[in-house]
Design brief:
The complex is a heterodimer of chains A (about 110) and B (about 120).
Chain A (H helix, E strand, L loop, with lengths): L3 E4 L2 E4 L5 E7 L7 E6 L6 E5 L3 E2 L7 E6 L2 E6 L9 E6 L6 E2 L3 E5 L1
Parallel strand pairs in A: 2-11
Antiparallel strand pairs in A: 1-3, 3-8, 4-5, 4-9, 5-6, 7-8, 9-10, 9-11
Chain B lengths: L2 E5 L2 E3 L5 E8 L7 E7 L5 E7 L6 E3 L7 E6 L4 E6 L8 E9 L1 E5 L3 E5 L2
Parallel strand pairs in B: 2-11
Antiparallel strand pairs in B: 1-3, 3-8, 4-5, 4-9, 5-6, 7-8, 9-10, 9-11
The chains are: A mainly beta (about 110), B mainly beta (about 120).
C-alpha cells in the first residue's frame, strides 16, 4: 500500500498569511494526487486534482504542485473560511490512501 | 444539481449487519464509478470500496474484504454497501462519493455505530 504522510499535522496562521502544506507518498504516484478540504461536521470537498488542477469553483488562492512523491498545497492569502482540515489522497493505485490531515487553525 | 444522499446508518451490535444506500441525482449515474469512504470519530479519512460504472469491477480495502460488499442498481441510481460481521472499529461516518480517480462529489454521510 502507498502511505501518504502530511506535514505539518497542524498549523496556526492569521488571515492574509501564506500557508503551505506538504504531502509525501511512500512511492511514486505520478500526478494522481488530490487535495480535499473538510470543515467540522461536513463532508470533504475536492479542491485540487491531478496534483495541480483546480476544481471548478475553488478560489484561485488555492494551488497545488508536485509530481512523483512530493506534493504541496498552498493557500496564498488565508481567508476566514479557509480554517479547516486538509487531506491529500493518492489515486495512482488501489487501495486509495489519504494523508493524516493538516488542521489549519486561527492564530 | 449533482447530489448524493446516504441512508441506512444506525446502531448495530458487534457481529451484526447493516446495508447503506446512496441515492444519486443530477448526473448519469451509470457513467461513473462510485466509492465509499469512512471517517472514524475525530480521525482521518479511510477509503472503503469502489465500484465501476457497470458494476463489473469492485475494489476493497483489505480490512473490509470479505465482510463488506459494494453494489449498485443503475436503474434506481443507487449505490449500496452491505456490511457484515461488524466490529466496534467500523464505527464511523460513511460517505459515498462520485469517483473519477478523485472524489469530486460527496454525500453528507451516514453514521454507523457498532456497540452492544
Amino acid at each position: 500500500d502507498i502511505q501518504m504522510t502530511q506535514s505539518p499535522s497542524s498549523v496556526s496562521a492569521s488571515v492574509g498569511d501564506r500557508v503551505t502544506i506538504t504531502c509525501r507518498a511512500s512511492q511514486g504516484v505520478s500526478n494522481y494526487l488530490a487535495w480535499y478540504q473538510q470543515k467540522p461536521g461536513k463532508a470533504p470537498k475536492l479542491l485540487v486534482y491531478a496534483a495541480s488542477s483546480l476544481q471548478s469553483g475553488v478560489p484561485s488562492r488555492f494551488s497545488g504542485s508536485g509530481s512523483g512523491t512530493d506534493f504541496t498545497l498552498t493557500i496564498s492569502s488565508l481567508q476566514p473560511e479557509d480554517f479547516a482540515t486538509y487531506y491529500c489522497q493518492q489515486a495512482n493505485s488501489f487501495p486509495l490512501t489519504f494523508g493524516g490531515g493538516t488542521k489549519v487553525e486561527i492564530k | 444539481e449533482v447530489q448524493l444522499v446516504e441512508s441506512g446508518g444506525g446502531l448495530v451490535q458487534p457481529g451484526g449487519s447493516l446495508r447503506l444506500s446512496c441515492a444519486a441525482s443530477g448526473f448519469t449515474f451509470s457513467n461513473y464509478a462510485m466509492s465509499w469512504v469512512r471517517q472514524t470519530p475525530g480521525m482521518g479519512l479511510e477509503w472503503v470500496s469502489t465500484i465501476s460504472g457497470s458494476g463489473g469491477s469492485t475494489y476493497y480495502a483489505d480490512s473490509m474484504k470479505g465482510r463488506f460488499t459494494i453494489s449498485r442498481d443503475n436503474s434506481k441510481n443507487t449505490l449500496y454497501l452491505q456490511m457484515n460481521s461488524l466490529r466496534a472499529e467500523d464505527t464511523a461516518v460513511y460517505y459515498c462519493a462520485k469517483y473519477q480517480r478523485f472524489m469530486d462529489v460527496w454525500g453528507k454521510g451516514t453514521t454507523v455505530t457498532v456497540s452492544s
